[in-house]
Every structure is written in structure tokens, then in C-alpha cells.
Amino acid sequence: MGEKWVLMKTAQTPTNIAVIKYWGKRDETLILPVNDSISVTLDPAHLCTTTTVAVSPAFQQDRMWLNGKEISLSGGRYQNCLREIRKRAREVEDKERGIKIEKKDWAKLHLHIASYNNFPTAAGLASSAAGFACLVFALAKLMNVSEDESQLSAIARQGSGSACRSLFGGFVKWIMGKEDDGSDSLAVQLVDEKHWEDLFIIIAVVSSRQKETSSTSGMRESVETSSLLQHRAKEVVPKRTIQMEEAIQNRDFASFAKLACADSNQFHAVCLDTLPPIFYMNDTSHRIISYVEKCNRSEGTPQVAYTFDAGPNAVLIARDRKAAAQLIQRLLFYFPPKSDTDLDSYLLGDKTILKDAGLEGLKDVEALSPPPENGSAQKYPGDVSYFICTRPGKGPILLSNDKLALLDPETGLPK
Amino acid sequence: MGEKWVLMKTAQTPTNIAVIKYWGKRDETLILPVNDSISVTLDPAHLCTTTTVAVSPAFQQDRMWLNGKEISLSGGRYQNCLREIRKRAREVEDKERGIKIEKKDWAKLHLHIASYNNFPTAAGLASSAAGFACLVFALAKLMNVSEDESQLSAIARQGSGSACRSLFGGFVKWIMGKEDDGSDSLAVQLVDEKHWEDLFIIIAVVSSRQKETSSTSGMRESVETSSLLQHRAKEVVPKRTIQMEEAIQNRDFASFAKLACADSNQFHAVCLDTLPPIFYMNDTSHRIISYVEKCNRSEGTPQVAYTFDAGPNAVLIARDRKAAAQLIQRLLFYFPPKSDTDLDSYLLGDKTILKDAGLEGLKDVEALSPPPENGSAQKYPGDVSYFICTRPGKGPILLSNDKLALLDPETGLPK
Predict the structure, then answer these.
(1) What's the Cα-to-Cα distance from A291 to each of A302, A366, A373, A378, rounded to whole Å?
(2) Do A269 and B273 touch (CB under 8 A)?
(3) How far is Cα A330 from Cα B316, in angstroms, rounded to an integer?
(4) pLDDT tens, per residue, chain A with 415 residues
(5) Terminus of chain B with fewer CB atoms < 10 Å: N or C?
(6) pTM of the full predicted structure?
């Protein structure tokens, strides 16, 4: 078949949300963190990146398309990932199609990459984590790389720190490591997604008029100027990480919630202690925290944990479906959709929770009573853009259905 | 004249704003802090408390009126101040009126106290600091107490921690002290109000719908739950206090601004690190910080320092009148008065700055151009309730003009 063949693989990789936060690098290029972090992987059915990688002797250069638009691969982070994965490439043979790529050929062959997020890239939902994890995972499959997920995570880490945690499902720990070359700074799975199946997750995508500080420059400024960051990294997080691992192992939601909330707040405290200060949370984020704290106090034991990344969106982890149903009632009471929005486009992901909450349509939302713990509560329509309902989910998978590939199998160009 | 006489004194005491923050007590009853703090005293012409204290054998009990309304003196903080000052009372004689009070008489005599703030009590402008300082200062004068201002500050401290810093003008340091009885936890003047006359202060009283956590309960919760507070108190503040004293002595505005802003942000970071987290600043506070940071960066050297106490109000310290005029232009551009508000009731205190800024009326405010560093800036009318323009000011004074007394000289009751 000459030199016209295109060989490709398509993978799907989840996003993750940290419950013990990563904030601050000790090495900017290798992306080595100042402390361990722990995350929960989100169900890829609701939030994931799909990436198709292709190789062909016909390709003239490495090219990449993100959400249908070509982007540059010249940045150091892409280059580091491509270089590291190419180093580990092995012989690949497709006997049926008569294709054989020798180990040494990989250095000369060019790649086409197409990636797509099933959620808004700009919404601050860790798209780069899923993206780099998916890129590295898909390339590893294409190149027949023998390294396991942990070893791959150390490569994905060089694209985006939090990407290393998207190589596994369930709960994942990013071990900061000690080596200067970063070889021991990688992710391990603590428990898989079946270990704690009760948990239910609601993400409030918060409307924001502010342009946010990127997490890369934000954490650099924190490392340089915050007098609290090193204390957090050296004294606070190591103890918290051990306690969080225990809470996860024991499915101890009260401890889990206390640690996750405290760590989210401390991360934002360090941002505020940065010069100039960084504000990721806004008044809506603060309100959501106050509602959750009030609700947890009135219930006597935590029903919901909150955590916020480098933006105003709230990730709310409910202890079980019942708590999630009560949570969505409260959230929709405080933050109803604007009059021109229907419930179907306001609540995305796993919509079955609506039925549990007795909410079939907008009329039911309008009829919601104020939460008992906050009788004189004000409503803020429009302050939340939409909600996504999801759960802890599985790690990366290879998609064998060729129809799901994002590149044309003949041309290697986006479909 | 029998037992009908009333003897009284009237004093006026300024508020103060901390530039190195007090947050956290090591002793709740004596009000002993976990770190030193430094404040600037605000001009009492614009923000002050006036207190008249009276004694008469005709009084049946200790009574107090605050802003015209009788309040209870049964609280521990009032009782501690009254007890401590009574202990130090000495013989008082008014030969003209034939009045003589022996030292031992003070234990039996009752007091009437009337206090008035020339600014809204609820606006979060340190009314309790000025209030307790004025109470102690006025009683010390009435009772012929020989203790100096520093020794009096240790009594005022037991009413409200920050009150001890209102016993002096200019820049004041509250030394945390080491003794268990609090005898060495008192205020000293660093420099008087003439030392750094260039400074100009603009307070933005920020509209807020939130009910705020009281600073008393807030700092208790921070001490109990924040893992960053002790690090701040032990490691960060001691160095910062020395640097701040130097900056003040040298009138080094760049260092002063850097330290004041950093310390305000760190105090709010500790609040955020508290469980449950405490939010004193809101989106408007955050916006003001961003504008000041942007402006300072574009000027190359700091023109304005910001500091926020336990509420959303911004206290902005401009390096001189020129910087203050530019600041008020920016502030009125971003936060114009609502259409039903005139400039005269929107900008209180020293209004001469308006002329420097070329702003004679609302038309001039409407005609303001966007600040050069922020060309596409949005306006937020209504997000600031009003501004107060002021300067560093003098310490407590005794008012000799009887017309300014708040109690009737015959009855000892509020006028």
C-alpha cells in the first residue's frame, strides 16, 4: 500500500478535581509540585476529553486540532510530552494492513492529533488535565509503549501538573517525589471508582465577569510572594494527605468533607496571601460555601463537601443520592435559571437526580420552599450559568469504535 | 450645694485603622493579642467619638447612652474598664463649686456616660475602638488619674483590643506584651501626626447585603481552626512589624504600601483559612484592590496602599494630595453615585480634594474618562455607599467648651 497508510488510536480520558490541592511548583519546566495532592476522577460520561492520534509517513509535520481548531504544538509543554513519549515508542505492526513501524522510525514520523472536550473549555473545568492525560495515553497506545499508567502520568505531568491525576479512575494521589529529574513525581490510584459508589457530585458553573489569573502564573506568584505557601506545603499538607487517604479508605464522609473544605479554603487563602492577591472565588462562590456550611451544621453531620479550583465554580460532593437530591433542591432555590432558560439546558449530566428531588420542570423549581436552615433566603437568578451532575468515574479508555475517531482514517485530517 | 452637684468631663477620641493587623487573642478576657499591630490614627474632625462622663452623689447607678439610646453596662468589657479606671481614681477638688471627692469616695459614686460617633456605628469603621478609648480617657480625666496614655491604653484594651491604639495620634504600635496579667500589652506612639503629613486617606464604605461575622467570634474561630494563623503570628508579623516601623520612620511610601497591602491580604487569608471560612471582603472590595494594584503598576511605584478590616470597606492611603486627587477620580469613575445621590452627600469629610481633582459637581464625575491603565473599564454605580476623605490625625483631647457636653450639667442626663 505504499506510504499512504494512516495508523490511529482514539482514547477518552476523564477530568479530575483535587480534594487536597496542588498549588506551587518547585520546578517550573518539569512541573514538580511543592506538595502531594489527592483528586477524585469525574465520570467521563459527563466530563471528558476524546483524543485521536494518528501517524503516517505522509504527514509533513506534527499538527494538532483542539475542538476543531488547529493550535500550535510549539509550546514547551507539548514538546516535552511528545519527546518523552517518542523516547518510549516501540515496534508496531498491523499485519492485516501490512504496516510495520520499527522503533527507530518513530523519530522521523509525524503525528496528527485531534482533541475534543465534551464540556466548555473556558468554563474552568480542568480541560488541560484531561487533555494532556488523553494525549499521552493515546500516543502510548499508538506507539505500543510498555510503561504503566503511573509511568505515563509522569509524562502527562509535564504537560499540565494535574493531568497526571487523570490517568486513573476513582481517587488518585499525585506523589510529589524527591528526585530532581521528576522521575518519582507521579500519580497512583488510591481506590478505584467502585470503592465509594455512594458519592454524587454537582458542579455549579458560576457566571463571572472577571478575567482570571491563569493557574500557571498564579502559582508562580504565590511561590514567589506568599509567606504562607511554604508553611502550608511543608507543615499542613503532609498531615492532611495522610488523613485524607484514611478518610477515603474508610469511606468516612465527615472527615472527607472537613478535610476537602479546609484544603480548598486554604488554597484560596494562599492565593489571597499572594502579591498582588489572586481572587478566584467571587460573591457567588462565597454564598455557595455559606449555604453548604449552614446546611451541614443544621444536619448535625456533613452532607456535602465543597471544593473550588482556580476559578469561581463550585464542585459539591454529596455523601449520597439523598443528600444530592436535597442539595439540588437548595441550589435551584437559591440559583434558579433565568426566565429564558429551560431546566434541560440548565442542569446537565446525570439528570436522574431531578426526579429524586421531585423536580420535573421549571414550575417545580419555582415552587421550592426556602431551605429550613435559611428561611429568609434571597434568590440569585443568573448567578450560576448551569449545573453539571456527575459522579466519581473511571480512568482513560481506548475507543475501539472507529466512528468515534476525530480524524479521517484516509487523510488523517479532522473529520 | 448639698448632694445635687454633677461633675463632668467631655473628651473626643479618634478611630484608627491597622496597617499591621491584629487578629487572634491569646487571652480572651484580658484581650491579649497573638502579635503586635501598628495603626494610623484618623483625623477626628472626620471620624471620632465624643464622650461625656459625669459623676454625682445623686446618681443611683452607672448608666450609659450610645448615640442617644441607653445601653447596658453589664457586659464584662465595660465592667473591666470601669473597675480598672476606678482603681486608679484619685482625689478631685473643684474649689469654685465647693466639690471634693476623696479617693475612697469613687467606689461608691455612680457614673453617667454619653457617647456619640460622628459616623455610622454600623458601617464597620472601628466605632468600638474610638468608643472604649474615649470612655477610658474621659474617665481618667474626670477621676484625676495619673497614669499616662500608654497605661490608659492597657485599660482601653480590655474594652476592645484595637481601642488601645486610639489613645495616640499619628502612627501607633500595640505591643503584644508577655505578661499573663496583660500589664505590658499596651500602645505606644511611633510618630505623631505631623511626622508624615503628606498622606491622604480615602475610605470607601462598601454596600453589603451580607451579615458579617463579628471580629470577636471571627478571631476566636481563626485561633481555634486556622493552621496558618500561628505561623503568621510567630514568623511573619514580627519581621513585618520591624519593617513597617522603619518605613514609617523613613516616610518610605513604597515599603509602607507593600507591607500594608500584604498584611491586609494575609489577615483576610487567615479568615478564609478558618473553619467555617470567614469572608469579609466582597466582589467590590476585590475590584478596588485590583484597580489600586493596576494603577500602582502603571505608575511604576506605589501611589496608594489599601487595607481592609473585618468588613468590605476599603481604607485607601494615598502617598500625597496629588495621588489622592488621581485616586478619587478613578474611584468616582468606577463607583459613581446612584442617580438620586448628590456629590455632597456621597463624599464626606475633607471635600477639598474634589477641587484638586477638578470635580465640582456630578457633571464632572459623569465626564470622567476611563483610567488610562484600564481603558475598557466597567462602572458599578451603587456598589459604594459613600466615601470619606480624611488624613492621619491627632490623639484624644479634652473638650473644654461645655456646650459640646452630651449630658445636661444639672441633671446628668442626655441633653
Answers:
(1) 12, 19, 9, 11
(2) yes
(3) 38
(4) 457 899 999 999 999 999 999 999 999 999 999 999 999 999 999 999 999 999 999 999 999 999 999 999 999 999 999 999 999 999 999 999 999 999 999 999 999 999 999 887 666 677 789 999 999 999 999 999 999 999 999 999 999 999 999 999 999 999 999 999 999 999 999 999 999 999 999 999 998 766 678 899 999 999 999 999 999 999 999 999 999 999 999 999 999 999 999 999 999 999 999 999 999 999 999 999 999 999 999 999 999 999 999 999 999 999 999 999 999 999 999 999 998 889 999 999 999 999 999 999 999 999 999 998 887 789 999 999 999 999 999 999 999 998 999 999 999 999 9
(5) N
(6) 0.94
Q: Are residues B163 and B225 both part of a single domain?
A: no
Verify whether the Cβ–Cβ distance A275 to B258 is below 8 Å.
Answer: yes
Interface residue of B227, B267, B280, B378 to substitute, partner A, most A CBs within 10 Å? B227
B286 and A279: CB-CB below 8 Å? yes
**Is there a single domain that holds both residue A179 and residue A218?**
no
- Nearest Cα to Cα of residue B302 among B286, B291, B318: B318
3-state SS string for B125-136:
CCHHHHHHHHHH
Residues A204 and A308 in one domain: yes
- For chain B, how many structural domains are there in total? 2
Q: Which of A232, A265, A274 to mutate to test the interface with B (most CBs of B within 10 A)?
A: A265
CA B18 – CA B264 distance, rounded (Å): 9
A236 interaction partners in chain B (CB closer than 8 Å): 227-228
Contact list, B232 vs chain A (CB under 8 Å): 227-228
- Is the same domain home to B103 and B211? no
> Containing domain of residue A300, as a range?
200-390
Do B26 and B73 have their domain in common? yes
Give B218's contacts in chain A (Cβ within 8 Å). none
Contacts of A266 in chain B (CB under 8 A): 227-228, 272-273
Q: Which B-chain residues 222-261 have CB contacts (< 8 A) with chain A?
A: 227-228, 231-232, 235-236, 258, 261
Distance CA B287, CA A276 (A): 12
**A157 and A257 assigned to the same domain:** no
Residue A152, domain CATH: 3.30.230.10
Q: Which residues of A touch B269 (CB under 8 A)?
A: 228, 269-270, 272-273
The Cβ of residue A180 has, within 10 Å, a number of other Cβ atoms equal to: 10
Name residue B259's amino acid: L
Q: State whether A269 and B265 contact (CB < 8 Å).
A: no
Query: Are B214 and B124 found together in one domain?
Result: no
Residues A179 and A62 in one domain: yes
CATH at A304: 3.30.70.890
